[in-house]
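Thread title: Can someone regenerate the structure for this chain?

I was given the following input by a collaborator and told the matching structure tokens would be attached. They weren't. Posting the sequence so someone can regenerate them.
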Amino acid sequence: MKIVVAVLSCTVVTVLVAIAFIYSGLYDVAAISPDNRIVAWALHQTFSSSVTRRMSGVQVPPNLETAEAIQSGARFYSENCVICHGAPGQQITAIASGMNPAPPDILAARRRNDPAGVFWIVKNGVKMTGMPAFGKTQSDTQIWEIAAFLRKARGITADEYQNLTGTRCLSVAPPSPRVGPSGSGVFQPPSTQSAKFVNCEGRRGP
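Best answer:
Regenerated them for you:
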């Protein structure tokens, strides 16, 4: 009986301490501050184990990496994913620089990019990472095309990426608001002279 009471007491104390910590505000949630190694490991391992468990039921379509699927996935990537995950030959964006955890370089040659895992992640998203759930807006066919591109494009060069996606990168000015004369508070559009970040547009013609 004493053991049961001791276990219950410890459980209650642990719960109360956890609640007190949650409401204390002691934990720094600022994205600019990196997580300590233990927290980072725990979050990544939880993510990895969760995806591995759930992707086991995903059936990869036969003949996934067709030329048409890869090109469609490449175009979707250039329009929706490159701002966070980047691409060869392009500067890292301000958005990607400020994210915690940092978005992985999913076009790196060392990546596995298992199609089943990519499909599950792209479709369902990942909590507390900034990775959205494209399954709310995209068909399974489109998501498989993304998986095909990411599988095929590991280690892709800047020229290969540009040819496949049909994009060109231009330097443009960062959008910084300015106040009108005499502190009027009127917003004025920034100048487009000083180049700071990269904008990629669809390439038309030769």
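Helices lie at 2-24, 37-55, 67-80, 82-85, 94-97, 115-124, 140-152, 158-165.
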